[in-house]
């Protein structure tokens, strides 16, 4: 079963939708782990002044990758594997990340 085929696609898809339909607001629900793959889409949204609202779901984990480990038969990942799949340290401050990309109205 393929579960991670769309990792990181939410932010760029929202950007494309906003470019294609500039008269409509685009609302995106994006998990934090997946969003880290394509964070730069926020910069494009700001640069192009696109009407996008992004809601980050802060799971603090690459949750899809946890599922992929299970799919390949890993019952209990070792400490190092678990550490590579979590987003606890350092803390991802999405408000500051968005502001750093030029999103002026970002808030947590």
UniProtKB/TrEMBL annotation:
Source organism, top-level taxon: Eukaryota
Molecular-function GO terms, alphabetical: acetolactate synthase activity; flavin adenine dinucleotide binding; thiamine pyrophosphate binding
Domain called Thiamine pyrophosphate enzyme TPP-binding: residue spans: 5-104
SUPFAM superfamilies the record matches: Thiamin diphosphate-binding fold (THDP-binding)
Family statement: Belongs to the TPP enzyme family.
PANTHER family, alphabetized: ACETOLACTATE SYNTHASE LARGE SUBUNIT ILVX-RELATED, THIAMINE PYROPHOSPHATE ENZYMES
The protein's name: Thiamine pyrophosphate enzyme TPP-binding domain-containing protein
